[in-house]
Write a structure and sequence with these properties.
Length: about 240
């Protein structure tokens, strides 16, 4: 049976991803700092899909323990999906170094170093898949969220480099970058977002599974984001500085 580890499993996106894999008969391991809060999710997966599921404790910021965490799972999962993320407050991050540091470590350093550890183990085993949920915010720094965006840019670049390294080595370990854009989750409940650019958590899960089937490794959940970000990236710097996005 295929085993899938979902890291950052308490988010709405993570829950949708877990249900999608469970619906295909996969065994689920849900990882979060407070695994007790996942008891309902574990029970639901078992009851609704008849699959094995369990919750485990994991703090992505405790990078020194990443190896020990993977060891504690027993067998290395076939697929690892990282949905860890922290938007933070941009204004606070501009004036509070600790707040900015937390956003950066949560969105980049922690996930990247976890994947570094997992990738080497998957290469040694001979196969595996790493799925990193990043963000379109990382494609160009914008005044409204550049601390978060810079961290996601780092994670996106890391995934790209890791993917190239493994491909050039002939490895069968796949690395997927997922760029969701706006997603209708509890985290964005107070934010008004454009309907055409806003996906549901289930769309993110479906996009990942579709990309797996087609062998795609860098995806926008809603294709329109490809055009939107192409336009934003193409703006000359003097123009971009004046635009409020």
């Amino acid at each position: 049976m295929t085993t899938v580890l979902v890291v950052g499993a308490r988010s709405d996106i993570a829950r949708a991803i877990a249900r999608s894999y469970a619906g295909s008969g996969c065994e689920l391991i849900l990882a979060a700092r407070s695994p007790d809060a996942l008891a309902g999710d574990v029970a639901d997966l078992k009851l609704r899909y008849g699959t094995a599921a369990r919750a485990v404790a994991f703090d992505v910021l405790d990078t020194a323990q990443h190896g020990a965490f993977l060891d504690s799972l027993g067998e290395l999962p076939d697929t690892m999906v990282c949905v860890v993320g922290l938007m933070g407050d941009q204004t606070q991050s501009e004036h509070d170094v600790a707040a900015a540091d937390l956003v950066m470590r949560t969105n980049y350093t922690g996930p990247a170093l976890l994947f570094a550890e997992a990738a080497n183990r998957m290469v040694a085993r001979g196969f595996g898949q790493l799925v990193g949920v990043s963000s379109v915010a990382g494609e160009r720094g914008r005044a409204r969220n550049y601390v978060y965006g810079s961290a996601k840019a780092g994670f996106t670049a890391y995934l790209s480099g890791l993917r190239q390294r493994l491909a050039q080595a002939g490895s069968k370990v796949r690395v997927m970058t997922v760029l969701p854009g706006f997603v209708r989750t509890s985290a964005l409940a107070d934010m008004e977002t454009p309907g055409l650019l806003t996906a549901e958590p289930e769309e993110v899960a479906a996009a990942i599974r579709k990309a797996e089937a087609k062998g795609r490794e860098r995806i926008y959940v809603r294709p329109i984001w490809r055009l939107v970000m192409a336009v934003i990236r193409s703006l000359p710097e003097p123009v971009f500085k004046k635009v409020k996005l």
